[in-house]
């Protein structure tokens, strides 16, 4: 029988990287979509997107690597690096160098819309809320991509609403995860998984 790992004589359990991963996603997505809808200016998006969306999510992804969680390793890293690139688009537009066209930004969003849809499939092994979140991300980015290609701002606005819904669902998962990790009680139902199988780790 193997003993539990200890740190200075006390039982050691690593923290769940998903706590900061979800936090970064919620804050960055909420900030960006409020700006997209014209409810605030874009200046905060650069710093908040780079810090919370980028650095925090990449950190969560790399910490997931060390606990053997392949799913969250790739998801948080993918969207973390997405949020490191997006502020670069804003900076180039503001300073007038390495500017990216609306169509190129639309293609970039489309790539991550497809990725989010693919991630939703293994996400359906965890619970019901996780794949719903990823589907909202896919739909939101897909509509924003279509809006960029068609020069149709209304499509982008509808996409922002879907991304705000994704942010709300991610916040719901964050609260449930935090309560479970700190109080050891499941107080918010996440729903039964859509697919049968065993996920790599608790979601």
TrEMBL record:
Q: InterPro entries, from UniProt?
A: AceTr, Gpr1/Fun34/SatP-like
Chief location bin:
membrane
UniProt keyword list: Membrane, Transmembrane, Transmembrane helix
Compartment(s) where it occurs, according to its Swiss-Prot or TrEMBL record? Membrane
Q: How does it sit in the membrane?
A: Multi-pass membrane protein
Where are the bilayer-spanning segments?
20-39, 46-67, 73-92, 104-125, 154-175
- What does the sequence similarity comment in the record state about its family? Belongs to the acetate uptake transporter (AceTr) (TC 2.A.96) family.
Protein name per UniProt: Succinate-acetate transporter protein
Q: What is the lineage of its organism?
A: Bacteria, Bacillati, Actinomycetota, Actinomycetes, Micrococcales
């Amino acid at each position: 029988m193997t003993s539990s790992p200890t740190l200075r004589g006390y039982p050691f359990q690593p923290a769940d990287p998903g706590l900061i991963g979800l936090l970064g996603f919620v804050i960055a997505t909420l900030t960006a979509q409020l700006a997209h809808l014209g409810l605030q200016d874009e200046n905060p998006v650069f710093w908040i997107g780079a810090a919370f969306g980028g650095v925090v999510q990449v950190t969560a992804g790399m910490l997931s690597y060390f606990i053997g969680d392949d799913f969250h390793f790739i998801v948080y890293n993918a969207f973390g690096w997405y949020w490191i690139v997006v502020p670069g688009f804003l900076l180039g537009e503001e300073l007038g160098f390495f500017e990216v066209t609306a169509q190129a930004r639309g293609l970039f969003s489309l790539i991550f819309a497809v990725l989010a849809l693919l991630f939703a499939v293994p996400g359906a092994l965890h619970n019901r809320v996780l794949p719903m979140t990823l589907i909202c991300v896919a739909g939101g980015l897909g509509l924003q991509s279509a809006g960029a290609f068609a020069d149709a701002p209304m499509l982008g606005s509808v996409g922002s609403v879907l991304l705000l819904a994704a942010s709300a669902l991610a916040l719901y998962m964050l609260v449930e995860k935090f309560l479970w990790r700190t109080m050891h009680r499941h107080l918010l139902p996440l729903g039964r998984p859509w697919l049968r199988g065993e996920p790599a780790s608790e979601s």
